[in-house]
Amino acid sequence: MDNYNDVARHELINWKKHMKKKPSIIEAYSKEVQNKFNNILPEKYHEVMTVAIKNMTKAVLYGSKYVTKPPYEYLTLREREDLLIDKTLIYKKTAKLEGAGTGAGGLLLGLADLPILLGIKVKFLYDVAAIYGFDVNDYRERIYILNIIQLAFSSKKHINEVFNQMENWNEYIKTLPEDINEFDWRTFQQQYRDYLDLAKFFQLMPGIGAFVGFYINGKLIDKLSETAMFAYRMRMKELE
């Protein structure tokens, strides 16, 4: 167990260094290309994404429909992360099948994949929070989940900002207002869209949409799982 924790602690240190790196010239240029690409996407695409992410964000903050399990207690870090691996495989399979199904259906079903995939991600993170022993009935934990999504699917500049907030979480939550309506969902949805736009656009194309949806959705769950693992390792007392 000690050896596992030592390795996890070393990996966490390296991950933190990576999160703190400033955007490279290539990353800054990629952001400019992404902005230009956004301008050629169908207006319907933007409308669907904006509404879906806004509604999902509010559902996470207000709702309890994703709360399925109480926090896991009295587990070692290795036991928790073994559970995370199993949970990732389950959700990855679900996301891949969903992506293949909607990708094969053309433009309209391809657009439907976007809010559905976001729902799968949120449900996955609720389960991950419980695995690491955190209670999402506390709305501050739901904000942490939204931060994990931003950390996984945002531009490097925004990642730097979000990571600083998460690294100093105990101090940050003291500044949270009583009214959770003040959450900045507009910035969240724009960052999320910018990351996904290029990859998910190809899912809308006839002939290759099913393959792209199957492949991309699986990769997105993998990335989210890895990000969540490190994000919760930061809060584990045994790694302090």
Rg estimate, integer Å: 18 Å
- What structural category arises from helix and sheet content? mainly alpha
Global morphology: globular
- The averaged pLDDT comes out at 77
How much helix is in the residues? over 70%
Put simply, the count of helices is 10
Low-confidence stretches: 103-110, 201-209
Domain unit count: 1
**CA(first)-CA(last) distance:** 15 Å
Approximately what portion of the residues adopt beta-strand conformation?
A: under 5%
Question: Could you please describe the fold and organization of this structure?
Answer:
The protein has one domain (2-239). Residues 103-110 and 201-209 have low confidence and may be disordered. The protein starts with a helix and ends in a 7-residue tail after the last helix. The protein has 240 residues and is mostly helical. Helix 2 (25-38) crosses helix 9 and helix 3 (43-62) runs parallel beside helix 5. Helices cover 74% and strands 0% of the residues. It has helices at 2-20, 25-38, 43-62, 77-103, 106-131, 139-152, 156-167, 169-172, 185-201, 209-233. It comes from Romboutsia maritimum. It holds the Pfam family EcsC.
Task: Summarize this entry quickly.
InterPro entries: EcsC. The chain is an all-alpha fold and 240 residues long.
